[in-house]
Write a structure and sequence with these properties.
Blueprint: H1 2-30, E1 33-36, E2 38-44, E3 50-55, E4 61-66, E5 71-76, E6 81-86, E7 92-97, E8 102-107, E9 112-117, E10 122-127, E11 138-143, E12 150-154, E13 160-164, E14 170-175, E15 184-188, E16 193-198, E17 203-207, E18 213-218, E19 224-230, E20 235-240, E21 245-250
Parallel strand pairs: 1-18
Antiparallel strand pairs: 2-21, 3-4, 4-5, 5-6, 7-8, 8-9, 9-10, 11-12, 12-13, 13-14, 15-16, 16-17, 17-18, 19-20, 20-21
Length: 252
């Protein structure tokens, strides 16, 4: 009898240790990893209050918008302005590439998305019914090039992740609790994740397509408002609105 009890006790201890180890491993997997990005280069750019950033269709250039001049600017990867054109509207914030000849930009105060070609000719625009302060509206935009769905960010109060179809019909909307505010968003075609930039929290949050956190990266950039993740060249590009600079980080 004593031997049987002793065996049962040993089995029980083994089971409890196994469950404890499993719980620890599970918790470890669920806890998002936080890393500091390694800064490689900072370059002044001749764009007033740059806000929003996108990689060109061929991956050779960057697109950004100037908040104060209401212009779209095409840059080389070293931050030099190649060409610019005016957009009919104020308070430009986000930009994304649709295909080789079309772009979409955000007008924050009027809550509008404007589609235009790379010469500046307007094709269409869509207005969204979003409440809140005029300067706390739509802020970031990106495109899932496979499904042609768009992902939009509302800056704060409330911070929102909005998914639409190619005609900007809303598919879902989610309240975000990832950071103090949200300033830009990037879609990765390689691993089907979203990369979300926060100005006030000074960080980048990688999420799944439903806005669930995977990983965080801390950054030291003053008023970061544009984000591109260049998987091919292992780089992350960020533009600073206040400093009017292009930051290049190493992609881990």
């Amino acid at each position: 009898m004593k031997l049987i009890i002793k065996n049962y006790a040993s089995i029980l201890v083994l089971v409890l240790l196994t469950l404890f180890q499993y719980k620890c491993n599970t918790n470890k997997q669920e806890s998002p990893v936080i890393e500091n990005l390694i800064l490689q280069k900072v370059t002044p750019i001749n764009v007033p209050e740059p806000s929003g950033l996108a990689l060109s269709y061929d991956g050779r250039y960057l697109w950004t918008v100037g908040d104060s001049d209401s212009k779209v600017h095409k840059l080389d990867l070293n931050g030099n302005v190649i060409t610019s054109f005016k957009v009919n509207g104020e308070d430009l914030e986000g930009i994304t590439v649709i295909d080789s000849i079309n772009l979409a930009v955000i007008l924050e105060r009027t809550r509008e998305i404007v589609v235009l070609d790379t010469s500046g000719k307007e094709i269409k625009r869509k207005k969204f019914d979003l409440k809140g302060k005029l300067n706390e509206g739509l802020e970031g935009i990106c495109l899932n090039i496979n499904t042609k769905d768009f992902y939009l960010l509302n800056e704060k109060q409330p911070g929102l992740l909005i998914k639409t179809d190619s005609s900007f019909k809303e598919l879902f909307k989610k309240d975000l609790k990832l950071a103090k505010d949200y300033s830009d968003i990037f879609f990765s075609n390689l691993d089907y994740t979203l990369w979300i930039l926060s100005d006030e929290s000074k960080k980048i949050i990688q999420t799944d397509l439903n806005g669930n956190k995977i990983k965080e990266y801390r950054i030291k950039v003053e008023q970061p408002e544009g984000l591109v993740v260049d998987y091919k060249n292992k780089k992350i590009f960020i533009v600073s609105d206040k400093k009017e600079e292009l930051y290049e980080f190493k992609l881990p």
